[in-house]
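WARN retry 2 of 3 for item q-0093 after timeout on previous attempt; input resubmitted unchanged.
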Amino acid sequence: MATSSMFRIAGAAATAALLAAGVTACGSAGAKTSAGHTAATPQPTASTQSAGSPGSPGAGMSLDGIKLPATLPTGIKDVGTWNWNNWHGWAKQAFANKRIDGFWTPTRMAAAKDNALRVNADDLASGGSKTTETPAPVLAHKAPRPYTAGYAVVGKLYGNSPQGAYVCSATVVQDPAHPGKSNLVWTAGHCAAGGKGKGWYRNLVFVPAYNSNGKTTDQTKLTNSKGLAPYGYWWANAATTTRQWFTAGDERGGQTQYDYALLKVVPPKGTTKSLQETVGGAMPMWFNAPHDVAKITAMGYPAAFPYSGTDLYHCDGKPGDLSQDPAAPADYRIGCTMTGGSSGGGWFAKRPDGSLALVSNTSIGPVVPVWLAGPRLGTVAQSMFTDFDRRITG
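OK item q-0093 returned
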């Protein structure tokens, strides 16, 4: 949802730098994996913030920490054939999320719009036999304050789209490669990328335990102190989502079965502690959870009417199935009155050993908010997570 990056290669010096990068920094360029997901891979340079090109076909180059696809010009003659449309098309595929200190002011955060995927009866008409009876509405309840222990792992995710600032929800999840020191955040795919033809969003920042003390319902009166962001601002520097969402997702619920994303974030200035150490925990992932779990708890920060976006809510219920494509895995669906802003928030269920784990995230809901649906995290999600963890967090 951020404006597409614009790249201006001006003069012989910039051209020379580009060509030099092609000679010295070849590597994989956000290549699609066999499991069908795409990742933005940072380069090991001091200037790197984030990188990647989910649609690029093969090896690529690095320039100022941003991954360039193999189809970029490789000689002076080729440069002359690249016009604005070439650059614009590639820019939408590149995840570049440089930290801008002070960007997310209370006023800007308060003005952020919810980023919900709302569907109507016609959008669901293509569903098949996997869809079960519509659940009864379940009233969302406020989480107890302050947001400590298990609640601190949930927060708000802000970003920019071509339409302006938006807000979602997200969850701190465990990183098997760094036990006890995770910097990974799980959210919806549509909270990180726009879907078909829209590319990655920009200025993505995670704010765990937002407004933990509940000092006010007027976000503009909060400050950048402990009241608003008790654990600070965590900018994303790498991201991955599914190929299905990135290339075919849409605002009417297309590809919601694959509507999830994983972000790696960096600590705020002045600290070296991981996100997990800072908030006091991280949720384990439960891939391939059974369809018939007894209860799911969905959490998030609903921001659309009648909610204000200042409070953490949850809904609890036994999930049913929602299918828009009988050939794809059915989504979980529960009754819930949370609105836009809760998108991307984690869904949790008890594993056989009694521990809670993340099994889904809020993806879509109807125009009238009476239920929510979220994807089942199967082999595609597990492969996406494992591959990203191996290549990005090493």
